[in-house]
Amino acid sequence: MTQLDFSKLNLQDALDLAVLIEKEAEERYHWFVDLLGERYSGDAADFFGMMARNEQRHGEELAARRRALFGDAPARVTADMIEDVEAPDSGKPRPNMSPRHAMEVAMESEIKAYEFFDKALPGIKDSSVRKLFEELRDEEVEHQNLLKEQMKKYPDTMSPDVDPDDVDTPAM
Fold it and tell me: Torsion-angle region of residue 74: left (phi > 0), alpha (psi -120 to 50) or beta?
């Protein structure tokens, strides 16, 4: 992985970086959906699908902003310069994970993204890049707050999400 020097980022680079971060998270959430398989509306895979759509929408908004400012200028920032900035940890999905567990995984990702943007700020020299990173960092707080509200609707359990009739009980 190529190391990013935040002090050398210009606004175009920063937007390209932000688009890549959103794309990586979107792809990881889609992978989780495929891995878990959707069992019913509102299950963990359904939640991860919603997160993928949110990441895609945010990435498209950032890409449109980038195109409006810089047209088709070639990107200098590439996917090999990032890894798991906002994408959830690939080892997190579990068979029959509960929707609440899925939300906890998403929360970890939103916190991780916040920390990425926040830690990058001291090294940023360009004021427009600084402003963008502050905006992106603050959006991660908004995402965390939305997840907290969503979590209130679900039981506070990390127990597997299974139908009791599907669990084999040992013979006595």
Answer: beta
Encoded tokens for 66: 């980038």
Write down the residue that tokens 């990586």 correspond to. 24
First CA to last CA across the chain, in angstroms?
55
pLDDT per residue over 63-92, tens digit each?
A: 999 999 999 999 999 998 888 888 888 888
Q: 6-78+95-159 belongs to which CATH class?
A: mainly alpha
Residues with Cβ within 8 Å of 23's Cβ and at least 6 positions away in sequence, in order, are 55, 59, 79
Determine contact, residues 63/77, Cβ cutoff 8 Å: no
The predicted structure's pLDDT at residue 163: 55
Write down the domain spans for the chain. 6-78+95-159
